[in-house]
C-alpha cells in the first residue's frame, strides 16, 4: 500500500498545450511539424491542442520537457506543465454533461 502511494507522487504526467498560428502555408507546416515531433516523443493527444505523456519519474519527465522545449516553433503560444500521477488522477473529465474515466496509468515494470 505504501509503495503504491509513493509511486502516485513519483510518477509524472507532462502536459504540452499550444495555440499555434495556421494562417499561412509555412505556419501550417510548422504546426504539423511540432505536432508530429511531440507525437514521436511519446505524447498522445488528450484534446486538439493538448498532448500528454506518462513518465516514470521526475528525471524522465525532465528529459521529455527538455525535448519539447528544443522543438518549440518560432511563433505561437506553448505551455508545458508537469503534474504527479496523484494530481492527474484527481482530474474530472466530462464529455458533454457525462463524466468519463481519466486515462489509466501505463503499467510499467520496475527492476531493482
From TrEMBL:
Transmembrane segments: none annotated. Pfam families: CRISPR_Cas2. Its EC number is 3.1.-.-. SUPFAM superfamilies: TTP0101/SSO1404-like. One of its GO terms (molecular function) is hydrolase activity. Mg(2+) binds at residue 19. Keywords: Antiviral defense, Endonuclease, Hydrolase, Magnesium, Metal-binding, Nuclease. GO terms for biological process: defense response to virus; maintenance of CRISPR repeat elements. Its cofactor is Mg(2+). Homodimer, forms a heterotetramer with a Cas1 homodimer. HAMAP family: Cas2. This is CRISPR-associated endoribonuclease Cas2. It comes from Deminuibacter soli.
Amino acid at each position: 500500500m505504501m509503495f503504491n502511494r509513493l509511486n502516485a507522487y513519483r510518477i509524472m504526467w507532462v502536459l504540452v498545450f499550444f495555440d499555434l498560428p495556421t494562417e499561412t502555408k509555412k505556419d501550417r507546416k510548422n504546426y504539423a511539424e511540432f505536432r508530429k515531433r511531440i507525437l514521436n516523443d511519446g505524447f498522445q493527444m488528450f484534446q486538439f491542442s493538448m498532448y500528454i505523456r506518462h513518465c516514470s519519474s521526475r528525471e524522465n519527465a525532465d528529459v521529455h520537457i527538455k525535448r519539447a522545449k528544443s522543438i518549440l516553433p518560432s511563433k505561437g503560444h506553448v505551455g508545458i506543465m508537469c503534474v504527479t500521477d496523484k494530481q492527474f488522477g484527481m482530474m474530472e473529465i466530462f464529455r458533454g454533461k457525462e463524466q468519463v474515466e481519466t486515462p489509466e496509468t501505463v503499467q510499467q515494470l520496475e527492476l531493482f
